[in-house]
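Before a colleague's protein record goes any further, I have to sign it off. What it holds is a sequence and that sequence's fold in token form. Would you go through it and say whether the fold makes sense for this chain? The record follows directly below this note.
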Amino acid sequence: MNYRNRMEEIMSGKHRLSEEDRLKMDYKPDQIPPLPKGEEALRPSTKAGWETEAVIRAMISNLHNGRDWEKLYIYGGSGKVARDWKAFFETVDLLKTLEPNETLFLQSGVPYGKMQTTKWAPRCVITNSVIVPHWTPHFEEFVASGLSVYGQMTAGSFIFIGLQGIIQGTYETIVAAIKAAEKKTAYNGLDDFEKNLIVSAGLGLMSGAQPLAIKMCGKVGIIAEVNPHLIDRMYNTGRDQGAPYLDYKTESIEEAILIAKDAVEKGDAVSIGVLCNAVDLLHHLVEKSITPLVLTDQTSAHDLLNGYYPMGIGYDEADILRAESPEEYLERSKKTVVKHVSLMVELSKRGAETFDYGNNIRQQAYEMGIDDAFDYSGFVLEYVRPLFCEGKGPFRWMALSNDPEDIRKTDEYAKKLFFDDEQLVNWLELADKYIPFEGGLPARVFWAGFVGRAAFGMLMNKLVSEGILKAPVVIGRDHLDGGSVASPNRETEGMKDGSDAIGDYPVINLMGNALSGATWVSYHGGGGVGVGYSLHAGQVIVADGTRLSQERLFRVLTWDPMSAILRHATAGYAKAIDVGNEHKLVMPGRNNIKDFDYEELYNRIIKLVKERTGVDLFSPLQDLEISLK
């Protein structure tokens, strides 16, 4: 069979894995692989030590935080940690025997090969769902043929930390949306109930952050969800600690409205999950002339087959229809998304501060003929881009000790280091109060920027060295960051210079992080909005308490936020140019600076950490070659 015929078979769906091969790949263990605890957690089990041990524990942590560990699904519809169980265990076995100067390469969820590199190079290089653009419409057939896998963002790059990973971003976004709503003329036309009401849909492994974030903003939230198991999960999460994500659950929209009105009258901030399709909830609001203060959506609309649920059909019935007649399921989903977005546009016209939260729902509706689908904006364009211009983004870390006390220690030192950042300190206080640690490794997240990321990473490394932290820390971020993504309907929507779809920038971010010494790096297609609509890169680095680790942390955590500043300065954003000039960054075409003084920045960070926390960082290595032998 020639190449052209082979490709046609794949794209027609005729070339699929045999049932025998599929069964081999779908083998799963009897129980979820455990994470080490106690004394066992304080020692690496791999030949290369903590760097490769960190990758393995991060993979397993993903499973513990994920929505369906047996299928290797983590979040976002079909976002997976590995292509299949065979590939998962092969990856773990290879990581265990990897030398400290070798690198393992993973291609869409399976081991691809390994080679000798250097101690400075990443221990793992990952790609997921990267398809030549012309063939992206056939991505699902490539998956069915065993050639690719959907890695989402942090699912396939092993740095998903559960709901907390998105909670701060959700909280900050809703705060910004509330402020924007209160400035609009339409605000004065809302009654007291409407001024306190926030409406959305989706309670999955990312959207499940919404109810808690809404409460943290002091408002009342009603969130539609078709999956009763997800409602139950959010209802039970944190309840034993007195801080449930979801306060109430009901199968009645009318009852949800009554609970919400009662809460507003009492001045309570509560969250309510209602078992219904988003379309049914929004239709009720329009019919009853209820206009919420803020409206958004976090259903998995980027994937109309595997993530989104059509109206007029129950959850279980929908799953059966998807399996038996995917074509009919897709047609129903398309009709639903048209109605869904039309209702959101209508509520926006009535005065609701409405925004797209990055699930590509507007694009789906636009392609189905809704010309005004983009009449409301995306959240990055409206609220987040000024932060990107400063190099700020979702900085996260996990304690390899598997001991929550290590995270509490890092919180304590973060408050010292960032004592003058009221918003960041406030977030840490809220996180400690409201956010329970989940099934995976204990973790924390906050939005930090240039200088701050490097300073805190280097500080945590020294805390490991001094035994204040029991074991090393894994430091990463969401792929949703200022310099790491090209996504015209989300992170790069409406760029000032029209560069929304230019994919060079995430590649530059990726290569810079790999060259700077990240422990593992990743490059994905489609995360969050679907394959064909975005390209994005991730980095993770281990703070193991060594002097070499400090050097790598300094370079990676300087370059990563710097790439965000450069990306937006290149696009012509004045704020990014000002920040770049403040730190004397080299910005060709934007200033005349020819050399960036890394030594000055390094010494500035050492001084900053000492003055604010009392911790002495390692002095810089004078001869870097010594560290690489």
